[in-house]
Specification:
This protein is of the alpha+beta class. It has a single domain (about 1-120), classed as Gcn5-related N-acetyltransferase (GNAT) (Aminopeptidase, 3-Layer(aba) Sandwich). It is about 30% helix and about 35% strand. A 7-stranded mixed beta sheet has the order 1-2-3-4-5-7-6, with helices on both faces. A hairpin with a 2-residue loop joins strand 6 (about 140-150) and strand 7 (about 155-165). The longest helix has 15 residues, at about 100-115. It is globular, with a radius of gyration of 15 Å. Its EC number is 2.3.-.-. Keywords: Acyltransferase, Transferase. This is GNAT family N-acetyltransferase. GO terms for molecular function: acyltransferase activity.
């Protein structure tokens, strides 16, 4: 049974293992497995989980294993305080099982109820139609094309900028 909870600093090690696993499953993420090794560790992840004013993460567990993660961030600057950014990673073994849907709902509810955001942005690869459709289901709209979102294996890859307006 899948359980979703807000991530705490003590969860840094399981989040790190999740990121290592999913970064090896797909190119749809912002980081490769090599990038996770190079730029992240349990301490950096734990530090990010200490400040619920600028970052909040929700993790989906099945048994004791993280199978999904959604991270909502915002800049703590007055001119940016009403907008957030979202990223999602789901273990490929759990795609199409509602995990991403449930995690997105949690993050969006937090954005509304706790941070009172007016909008949420996210980037997605143009070819990631599964994710684009999921985001549209939650009210995100494509607001722009990104000719260069990422460089994957030496190849520049296009993306979409998506936005969800929130009426408070």
């Amino acid at each position: 049974m899948v359980k979703i909870q807000i991530a705490e600093p003590k969860d840094a090690d399981v989040i790190y293992r999740h990121l290592l696993k999913v970064s090896n499953q797909t190119n749809n993420l912002n980081y490769s497995q090599k990038d996770v090794h190079k730029y992240l560790d349990e301490l950096k992840i734990s530090d990010q989980l200490h400040d619920n004013e600028t970052a909040v993460s929700f993790i989906a567990f099945e048994d004791d294993e993280v199978i999904g993660l959604v991270q909502l961030t915002r800049k703590n600057l007055p001119r940016f305080i009403n907008r957030g950014e979202l990223s999602v990673s789901i273990d490929q073994d759990f795609w199409n099982q509602g995990v991403g849907n449930d995690l997105l709902a949690k993050a969006i509810n937090w954005a509304i109820d706790e941070w009172h955001l007016r909008g949420i942005y996210l980037n997605v690869l143009s070819g990631n139609l599964r994710a684009i459709n999921l985001y549209k289901k939650h009210g995100f709209k494509i607001v722009g094309d990104l000719p260069l979102l990422m460089t994957i294996s030496g190849r520049d890859t296009a993306g979409k900028l998506m936005f969800k307006e929130i009426d408070n």
